[in-house]
Write a structure and sequence with these properties.
CATH superfamily of the largest domain: Phosphoenolpyruvate-binding domains
Shape: elongated
Number of strands: 21
CATH architecture of the largest domain: Alpha-Beta Barrel
Helix content: 25-40%
Oligomer: single chain
Structural class: alpha/beta
Length: about 475
């Protein structure tokens, strides 16, 4: 049985050889995430070209997700071995430019920690928390003096160079896209990435700014979906306005848990997935899903439950980060993820959340998707076939969550690759159809050759009509495979 929720795997040193990538694809990888916090353009170009080659060899669309780094809020350079922060200790923080971080060092006479956070003193107020190293260390602001921020250590521990910094509640005037991101975006569009994820999203304007850059850099690639990484409390405060303009979202639970609290993350995850369903956006649930498998050959029971519950919540995809990028067991991580997702989907009707509960839409395509769902439930339908030029109709059918397989047909190679992230969709690349007869012929030839469907089984076929006129979906045809059209 076809797995419906898709698997995103981060590509890194543990997984970037041709042999290992091919094994990951066979194990179940649907989306390859390229983290632009690491690596050169030349290295990423090699991975993109290799993934395209392997996608063609395996006859499987592999969606390539470019994940932009965003603003780099980190600790500067400290002495080798780091420094030990002690609860109650007074520590001074100072903003520096990342390029100058080697000039400001830790001094025994004065505990000074350099941070690559611009205008830190103007962004925080007494009482604000400053978290470092994924929240393992916590400081509280006691005051500011010019460019210095005075703090007291609440939770101590060893701090080493370049650890991440989180500033919950701070009023940061930092753009979500940096000069590095702009250069990376231009590169990624030229290389043909399928999705672009942006970090540090706070409002809808952050999404619109990136879409404007896409239009400027590659006018012919404006359809590339933008994925908003939801990792800051401000993004949750503006969740609905972000959903209205983004194409997809990533539930970045690591930073969300640090910026807010671990206890609130499950509720935010459910809220995000529910809101995405309302606006027909795809959702990637990310961070620490099988984290123990970075070092261990099997996941914990808690991790298995976490993945299954994300499926029950209605996520479109689940993501592996360090597990496949740097972990010891990248292939096993995907195999276990695949197994857990399949088991959850077998029980989705009992425990799954009905994600598509929004009121009736004015979109004819959505009404048609609902009609196809009704046909599939009320008649002996084995699959739904969707003809799509942009992928939008396929996503709409995906979001109504039919019980039967969804086959999406497109003549556009870019759309074919992009649909690899959509829940339940098996994409097919076909010639351009100009009539209902040719359309049905392409469907029958493809499904008989590449699926378990056989003549005599029924399908619902969704398309625009007249076929080939590039019109929105307005036709639903109930067809029996092997029968001549009347």
């Amino acid at each position: 049985m076809q797995r419906k929720a898709k698997i995103v795997a981060t590509i890194g040193p543990a997984s970037d050889t041709p042999e290992r990538l091919k094994t990951l694809i066979h194990a179940g990888m649907d989306v390859a995430r390229l983290n632009f916090s690491h690596g050169t353009h030349e290295e990423h170009a090699q991975k993109i070209h290799l993934l395209r080659q392997l996608s063609e060899e395996t006859h499987k669309p592999i969606t390539i997700l470019q994940d932009l780094q965003g603003p780099k809020l980190r600790v500067g350079r400290l002495p080798v071995g780091g420094i030990e922060l002690i609860a109650g200790q007074t520590v001074v923080l100072n903003s520096i430019d990342p390029d100058d971080e080697a000039e400001l060092m830790y001094s025994q006479e004065r505990v000074v920690i350099p941070l690559t956070v611009p205008d830190l003193a103007s962004a925080v107020s007494p009482g604000n928390r400053i978290l470092m190293d994924d929240g393992n260390l916590e400081l509280v602001v006691t005051g500011t003096e010019k460019d210095d921020v005075w703090t007291q250590v609440e939770v101590g521990g060893l701090l080493t160079s370049h650890k991440g910094v989180n500033l919950p509640g701070a009023k940061l005037s930092i753009p979500s896209i940096t000069d590095k991101d702009k250069a990376d975006l231009r590169f990624g569009l030229a290389e043909g990435v399928d999705l672009v994820a942006i970090s540090f999203v706070s409002t809808a304007e952050d999404i619109l700014a990136v879409k404007a850059l896409v239009k400027e850099y590659a006018p012919d690639r404006q359809a590339v979906p933008i994925v908003a990484k939801l990792e800051r409390p401000e993004a949750i405060d503006h969740l609905e306005e972000i959903m209205k303009v983004t194409d997809g979202v990533m539930v970045a639970r690591g930073d969300l848990g640090v910026e807010t609290s671990a206890a609130s993350v499950p509720i935010m995850q459910k809220r995000i997935i529910e809101m995405a369903a309302k606006y027909n956006r795809f959702v990637i649930t990310a961070t620490q899903m099988l984290d123990s498998m970075i070092h261990n050959p099997r996941p914990t029971r808690a991790e298995a439950s976490d993945v299954a519950n994300a499926v029950f919540d209605g996520t479109d995809a689940v993501m592996l980060s360090g597990e496949t990028a740097t972990g010891k067991f990248p292939v096993k991580s995907i195999q276990y993820m695949d197994e857990i997702v399949r088991e959850a989907e077998l029980n989705y009707q009992r425990w799954g959340h009905a994600v598509n509960q929004q009121p009736a839409s004015e979109l004819d395509a959505l009404a048609l998707a609902r009609a196809a769902l009704a046909l599939a439930r009320d008649t002996n339908v084995s699959a739904i076939a969707v003809f799509t030029r942009s992928g939008k109709t396929a996503l709409l059918v995906s979001k109504v969550r039919p019980d039967v397989p969804i086959f999406a047909f497109t003549p556009d190679p870019q759309v074919y690759q992009r649909m690899g992230v959509y829940w339940g969709i098996k994409p097919f690349l076909i010639p351009f159809a100009t009539s209902v007869k040719s359309m049905v012929s392409y469907v029958e030839t493809s499904v008989i050759a590449q699926t378990s469907l056989t003549p005599g089984q029924q399908m619902v076929i969704i398309s625009g009509y007249p076929v080939g006129a590039f019109k929105p979906a307005n036709l639903a045809l109930l067809h029996t495979i092997g029968e001549e059209l009347g």
